[in-house]
Specification:
The complex is a heterodimer of chains A (267) and B (185).
Chain A: H1 2-17, H2 22-28, H3 33-47, H4 56-84, H5 92-115, H6 125-138, H7 142-167, H8 172-188, H9 194-218, H10 224-250
Chain B: H1 11-22, H2 26-48, H3 51-68, H4 76-94, H5 103-109, H6 118-132, H7 136-147, H8 152-159, H9 163-183
């Protein structure tokens, strides 16, 4: 009996999904109508619950993280592929040298990891920026380089907030670097495939809007003098947003401009 | 306004995207991630009852997806939900006890339909609270079926159950929900 009711309930849910009313379904199974009706009404109520939606910033963060994971994977693949294809790996002297180099790499990598959460003014901060420069130089494909610029911009934004939190002042260096990295991200994306460019533009636009929001939120916490620099940065973000909207609008079969317009560059 | 609400992608399109994503095509990876993000996020939100934790876990699901996509076989949906469920197990293992945070509070923070009347908002809250009180598998069935619109077959793959078992879970979940709502008046 219970088994039959499970089947009937499921069949009624499918029928309702196709546009029939609850009354129509109850008419098909009058002997079960009393048990079915509250369950079907409840199912309809659940169907009408507004879905909790994720925040835009959270999706942005996820896109950044997967971008980083892709870059990390392609770099690892490249390094491992080259390493294991070497025939001299069988010679002991060379193996020792390689082991030394590997240890050095691990030490450098370890320092890089430790320095990754440092902010301007910390002892390890120069290591962080050097690691970034090396990573950027080693990245060969344009797509990866453009994504990497965005990752760096995200880090500058993090540093900007951390400096404000710890030292209570605006770090103009991080602000300048943040806008510069975002600017260079588009410059790097000049030659990537049109479809991938559209997607990249969406990432860039989300990040730019997010930056603008963060800068606006910072204003009550900084001095009047610092506010002027932040206002200028917000203006640049707004110009960029308009410029990207125009780029998206004009993207047809033959593409369109991929260049920043005047007012979008940080001077 | 939900900027990430894509049109529904059918299974054939998902299969094509997964194939491209396995070759590390960034566009395919991003499309898959932005399409599945809200689904996985809601799935996790109902499990951890905390928005920030659900967001962090959802991001981690997609990073793991990128890292192990090459090894993926069978249903992509089911695979992705398995990663999410494994992360939830780790999450609770790390936590000494489950956070006593109301789902309704988090849920209210980001429902987007501001035109709802106070009465319907209250009704949705009550219903949502009742859903969060259901046993795990029953709650998952309700969320997957009614909030995400998955078919019985897809739910069966995600939960590693037979279609008959999914129908039974659905029946029991609705019955329990009815009882919870009645008992709360």
């Amino acid at each position: 009996m219970a088994k039959r009711l499970e089947e009937i309930l499921d069949s009624c849910l499918n029928t309702i999904k196709k546009g029939k009313s609850i009354e129509y379904c109850l008419g098909l199974y009058p002997e079960y109508a009393q048990e079915l009706e509250p369950l079907l009404r409840l199912a309809l109520e659940i169907d009408e619950i507004p879905k909790p939606e994720p925040r835009k910033e959270a999706v942005n963060v996820m896109l950044m993280k997967i971008g980083e994971a892709v870059i990390e994977q392609s770099e690892r693949k490249l390094v491992l592929g080259k390493f294991f294809s070497r025939p001299f790996l069988t010679k002991p002297v060379l193996v020792k040298s390689l082991a030394t180099i590997l240890i050095a790499i691990v030490v450098v990598w370890g320092m890089g990891m430790v320095s990754s959460r440092s902010i301007p003014g910390d002892i390890l901060y120069p290591i962080k920026t050097t690691t970034e420069r090396v990573k950027f130089t080693l990245t060969r494909n344009t797509e990866g380089r453009a994504e990497l610029r965005l990752v760096f911009a995200d880090r500058r934004l993090y540093e900007l907030l951390k400096v404000l939190e710890r030292r209570g002042k605006l770090d103009e260096y991080a602000l300048k670097a943040l806008l510069r990295e975002t600017e260079l991200a588009l410059d790097e994306a000049q030659t990537i495939d049109e479809n991938e460019f559209k997607l990249f533009l969406t990432h860039l636009d989300h990040f730019n809007n997010y930056t603008e929001d963060v800068l606006n939120q910072m204003k009550p916490r900084i001095s009047e003098h610092e506010c002027r620099a932040v206002d200028k940065a917000i203006k640049v973000c707004q110009s960029r947003s308009k410029c990207m909207m125009e780029m998206k609008r004009r993207r047809g079969k033959n593409g369109g401009s991929r260049r920043w317009e005047s007012g979008c560059r940080w001077k | 306004m939900n900027v990430y609400k894509d049109r529904d992608i059918n299974n054939a399109e998902i299969a094509t995207l997964v194939k491209a994503a396995k070759n590390q095509k960034l566009e395919a990876l991003s499309k898959l991630s932005t399409y599945f993000y809200p689904k996985i996020y809601r799935h996790l939100l109902y499990k951890v009852n905390n928005r920030e934790d659900a967001e962090d876990l959802t991001s981690e699901v997609f990073v793991r997806m990128v890292k192990s996509l090459r090894k993926q076989k069978g249903s992509f949906n089911a695979w992705l939900y398995r990663i999410a469920n494994n992360l939830v197990v780790d999450y609770y293992r790390k936590k000494a006890r489950q956070k006593e945070v109301s789902l309704v509070e988090d849920y209210n923070e980001h429902i987007e339909d501001k035109e709802d009347t106070a009465e319907s908002i209250l009704q949705h809250q009550t219903l949502n609270e009742a859903i969060s009180k259901l046993p795990d598998e029953q709650r998952q069935t309700i969320v997957l079926k009614f909030l995400e619109g998955y078919s019985n077959k897809e739910i069966a793959e995600i939960l590693s159950k037979s279609i008959g078992a999914v129908k039974a879970l659905q029946f029991r979940a609705l019955n329990n929900l009815k009882n919870v709502l009645q008992s709360e008046g």
